[in-house]
Amino acid sequence: MPASPLPEPAPEPSPAPAPAPADTLPTLLAHWTRHTPDRRAFTFVEYPLPDSRGVHRTLTWARLGVRTRAVAAHLSGLARPYERVALLCPQGPGFVVGFLAALQAGTVAVPMFTPDLPGHADRLAAVLTDARPTVVLTTESAASSVRAFLAEHRLEPHLVVVERVPDERGDGWVPSDPGPQATAYLQYTSGSTRLPAGVEITHGNVVANACQALGAYGAAARPVTTVGWLPLYHDMGLVLSVAAPVVRGLHSVLMDPAAFLQRPVRWLQLLSAHRDTISAAPNFAYDYCASAVADHEKTGLRLDRVTALINGSEPVRPATADRFHAAFAQHGLRDTVHCPSYGLAEATVFVSAHRPGTPPQRYALDREGLAAGKALPAAPGDPDAVLLAACGEPAGQAVSIVDPGTGAALAEGEVGEILVQGPNVGRGYWGREQETRDTFRNAWGDAPGPWLRTGDLGTILDGRLLVTGRLKDLIIVDGRNHYPQELEATAEAAHPAVRPGRLVAFAVSGADGGESAVVVAEHVRGLPPEKRDSVQTARAVRAAVSARHALRLSAVLLVPPGSVPRTSSGKVSRALARQRYLDGAYDPGPDLAREHTADGDAAAGADASAGADAGARARTGGDEGGRA
Fold first, then answer.
1. What is the mean pLDDT of residues 515-540?
2. What is the mean pLDDT of residues 591-614?
3. In a 3-state reduction of DSSP, which class is residue 133?
């Protein structure tokens, strides 16, 4: 794969012949290998130096076919059909080749990450123990760390380095099509509310969901280029940057997540370098670009080439789209390309999406009504309105809103649990029969089952899905519902010491048996000690939450950067943070300890006197959105 500076790409040739009806990625890969051998399939962009413009390595469909076939033939000699093959590969050609080869060999892929991902070694060990792979695929650059990790955890699968398998290994090998009903891979959940579980995604599931996503984002009838930096072991990165390009024969351009975090303008430059681009990122990435990309870095951006920008995060904040658009409108970015979306691993990934072509729909809802389970319009100019971005219409599947206690279908505008039904819904959880029955085999909803229980709360307005929160994260105090992401947004805006996006709100049981709420927030990185007074920050957060949500927090902890746990997909883990809090893992410090033990009335008075300004900031700062 020759390396060279990333040039302005030449126009793609006219569309290739459409494939015959096919239900598996291996069959579709064979189609494009045969009909469009010289077209670009995957381009991997590397940044060896901080100021590098990027070095690209491209696999054509023919070259991808040769490499995939060789590795698949090698796998077939080590693992029987339906045995698991784990991918412990960095972002790059080894991951893509290995994943497609595992499917072509009839084995079950387990997309994961290399052992050097900070803070996730225990999760990786737990997944490998659960999946019990016969083979682990890795790359030359990661082989030594993977070998050491397996030895440390006494795991003994066959270890295969993708680059060391010669092309000739695939000569004469005949693959067998496992069929659409066979399990293609295990997509392990992020573990934001519980231990990770492997969702069995069939060959039919992933092809169906890729088609649903391409249709929703305007790519079903015309060629587009997908541009991505999301990790390929994550459901959205895998489907958008690998599965969808194979389904439609599209060009996929990939970079490492670390390259984006180091210089976010690199993502925008890749979007500008290709025509009709589609990409996805969590909410924080759009805020990050708006704040971190300097004016001089914007020179030459051509964001008029973007077809769709998917925001599938928790939460999707309308204000984020506004800031991102304001930052880059002068460089061709249209407000009609923003696509708030909703999905989850149990449904492969995509469920519903706003279609590009019109600005996203947003709703200002009455806060008290939402707390009572009703999506009611807020009064004009209400500073306490909850602003939600609609996640559009379902993409080739059915969605129902039900009472999570009874399963009864709810009317439009009533908040309940989101159920999903469609050809993209996974088979169940690997090795977990009871959890599979509870989650995937429900007869609830407004149509015959089975329905998937998502565990997410939402409502339907004007035919559009609005996601309001996570059922297990809901904080119920004195009979009123509080969504943690709302409390977090208010707390974040209450004091400049609070690090944006690095805080959690959760419920704990009180001495009287009722629930109370706690906020754990990281302070801004590099903030001098004199500017991160824990008592002052706690008082400001308490006052803001009290003023906006009529809720008294039982504790506010300001902790060092890196203390709030996050999942492998980058979301805060409220469940793990709650457990750490209950275990006493967070040291409140002497000043904050005195705040906790202060007389309740005195503390309340201090909140009110110290927090009037913070309360005003909270009313005007940060919009809330649902998990998507």
1. 89
2. 37
3. coil
The single residue listed with the structure tokens 């189609």 is 31
**3-class DSSP state for residue 22?**
coil
| Mean pLDDT within 22-27 | 89
Rounded CA separation 556/562 (Å): 17
For residue 2, is it left (φ>0), alpha (ψ between -120 and 50) or beta? beta
pLDDT in the model for residue 443: 87
Q: Which two tokens stand for residue 51?
A: 């100021």
pLDDT at residue 618 is higher than 50: no
Within 10 angstroms of residue 529's Cβ, the number of other Cβ atoms is: 7
Dist CA 410 CA 374 (whole Å): 11
- For 377, half-sphere exposure in the C-beta direction (CA atoms, 13 angstrom radius) is 5
For residue 589, what are its two tokens? Answer: 């410090």
Structure pTM? 0.86
Nearest to 625, CA basis, from 467, 414, 418: 467
Rounded-to-integer distance, Cα 247 and Cα 208, Å = 9
Between CA 566 and CA 52 the distance in angstroms is 30
What are the Cα distances from residue 301, in Å, to 45, 269, 489, 516?
17, 6, 31, 48
pLDDT tens-digit series, residues 373-404: 999 999 988 988 999 999 999 999 999 999 99
For the stretch 513-517, contacts whose Cβ atoms lie closer than 8 Å and that sit 24 or more positions apart, written own/partner, are: 514/477, 514/478, 515/475, 515/476, 515/477, 516/477, 516/552, 516/553, 516/554, 517/475, 517/477, 517/482, 517/487, 517/545, 517/551, 517/553, 517/554
Contact 407, 416 (CB under 8 A): no
* Strands 84-87, 306-311: pairing kind: unpaired
Distance CA 244, CA 66 (A): 20
User: Is residue 415 within 8 Å of 374, Cβ to Cβ?
Assistant: yes
How many angstroms separate the CA atoms of 79 and 307, rounded? 41
What average pLDDT score do residues 316-337 get?
Answer: 94
Residue by residue, DSSP assigns 214-236 as HHHTT-SSS--EEEE-S-TTSHH
Cα–Cα nearest to 334, from 342, 345, 326:
326
**198-202 and 135-138 beta bridge pairing:** unpaired
The amino acid at residue 404 is P
Residue 508 near residue 518, CB atoms below 8 Å: yes
Integer Cα distance of 91 and 141 in angstroms? 11
Q: What angle do CA 144, 146, 150 make, to 5 degrees?
A: 120
Q: Which residue has the tokens 């708030």?
A: 340
Q: Which amino acid is at 611?
A: G
Q: Residue 398, SS3?
A: strand
Residue 287 to residue 623: CA distance in whole angstroms: 13
Q: Residue 297 pLDDT > 80, yes or no?
A: yes
pLDDT class for 626, splitting at 50, 70, 90?
very low
Element (H, E) at 97: helix 93-104
Strand partners, 514: none
Dihedral class, residue 332 (left if φ above 0, else alpha if ψ from -120 to 50, else beta): left
The pLDDT, as a whole number, for residue 591 is 43
Measured from the Cβ of residue 317, the count of other Cβ atoms closer than 10 Å reads 25
Contact 246, 24 (CB under 8 A): no
- CA–CA gap between residue 89 and residue 143 (Å, rounded): 9
Distance from the Cα of residue 538 to its chain's centroid = 30
* HSE (side-chain half, CA atoms, 13 Å) at 314: 27
Return the amino acid letter for 488. E
